[in-house]
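seq/struct pair 1
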Amino acid sequence: MNSKTKLIHCGRGDQSVEARSVNPVLMRASTILFKDHASWQKHKELRKTERVLSYGARGTTTNFELEKLICALEGGYRAQLFPTGLAALAMVLLNYASKDVHFLITDAIYGPVRTICELFLEKIGVEVDFLKADASDIEEKIKPNTKLILCESPGSILYEIIDLPKLCKIAHAHNIPVAIDNTYSSGYFLNPLELGVDISVIAATKYLSGHSDVTMGIVVVNEKEWKNFNRLPEVFGFTTSPDDVYLVLRGMRTLDIRMRAHEKSADEIVEFLQSRKEIKTIFYPKLKSHPNYEIFMRDHKGANGMITIEFIDSYDKDDAIKFVDKLKYFSIGASWGGYESLATVTTPPRTAIDLSTRGPFVRFHIGLEDTKDLIADLTQAFDSIKK
């Protein structure tokens, strides 16, 4: 089944019944009732390996349908839902954490992951090193006690590209699992498990939901690395609302159409931005000038609506702030992946490279508005800071 068809036909409940609703039933429950003690014990045992009702915090039938759909897209063995994307990333790290182990994380990882390392991993004796954003220094950074590699590709804010098959081949030769933050492609434009990755993490908050009204994270795991992931939410008291799950399921039915619309509009905006003399660098993986462009085009089925620009040296951060404040159709706000366009002045968090003399940077999320309106808006904002 093609991925576009999976979005429509997977995760919709039992379709063999004589009569049913188009969408899966929304099941709200905290307590699950059983006819007798034996049934209760049976379900508690089955939940170790299967999706079965046992306790509301461990998911209802609505949750299970989203897990099935995302597994179908990603080609995963099982999936687990979390209340946010960051919670999902934290659980991946903590699942492999113990005293005196070593983690490798790529430099372009989602910024708050660094805080998890500082507040929790360092306290329990986990050593963390940051790779270059493209993971090109992986072989020299692996240690005998390296137990996990966490990467992001395209990277956060500057969209650095990793050769995932090469990275996984090196990691697996040392028996090291590889996890990726796959939010950029959202399980649709990139299938990392097919390229050798063991664990894929997606912030469903972004493109899967698509409407800026849900927070959720999803971990998709192959069979080899599935151990413990279904237990972590209950141990840490995490649960995911079936109402939010229902919204994500509904949003995913149009994921193909929305992702391709975001990409088409982003292509048009990039073409416009290339004509602006205020810009030194455009960060967009589909540009031939983008580092590792060939790898991106080989492995990815498309780009999303994310673009970052770097102003020329005569502009400073105050100019960038004035530019963003002048925009009318680009709102200022965290997150992305919804239907609305966003623009934020940003500093990419990097330690493997020095960006102190670079910038200022502005990150755009290109929404679903008419690109003529967006280009006109950008034009007037650029004109307002012209020197």
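seq/struct pair 2
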Amino acid sequence: MILSLNPNAADRRLLDEGRRTRAMTWIMAIMLFLTVLAGALGLGMFAATSQLDRELSGRLTVQIVEPVASLRDAQAAAMVRELGRLPSVARVREVDRAHLAELLRPWLGDAGLDPDLPMPAMIDVEVRGDAGPVEQAARRIAPGARVDRHAQWLSPVRGFLSSMSWLAVSLMLLIAGATAAVVLLAARAGLDTHRDTIEVLHMLGSTDIQIARLFQRRIAFDTLLGGLAGTAGALVLVWFLQARLSAIGSEMLGGVALQRHDWFLLLLLPIGFALLATVAARVAVLRALGKRL
């Protein structure tokens, strides 16, 4: 069956299209506006979670806390040398003291640059596979060394991103269910309003399927028209928010940015909702007409 979304004159007469914009169109515009925002949130959170997993996978930091500078420097040099020989280590480097001082500047000010101030040695390690041998080697070289896995201390952040992703998916499913319910109510209201017209069509030989096509074309057109308007407004808002996030310059927030395929998926939502409304209207009309026979 080929379905045309452009309602003809018979559709408009049957469904009583007035001069004002149909309420169904506005409702669908609001539904798609909220759905696109929820979808953009979900896609952004999934992208940020994936980026966080890639950056933190196999990353750990070895911290050597030693008040004697000479001993600390010797342990740090031995740590870099020995860990670099392990086959599971992809990269190892000692964090520059000046960089550490810059990180501590908000709390210590220029005092962090004082050479007499004891500062731990920080060694950044990137591991392929199991990090157990690296931790054992680090504690063998410097028994007081502290090994921090990046994925472990950032796990609350990842958990929050994952929760927001699934919350967005739940909101999309909830809105889709509400849209189907609105379509069912609109179809039943149309049947009740035009009961006499439908009886005349039956007497003229029209089948339930033919009558259902009139309703589903009208509802599909309203859904698509309102959906395109709501989607356009939501995409403009998403683009504005993404531009503001990019201006912040944060690496973590930058991962929330939508990719080209994400924009394409969001553009498919109006078509998906139009198909959903078409099926819901067809089912509702055929079921209601079947009960009246």
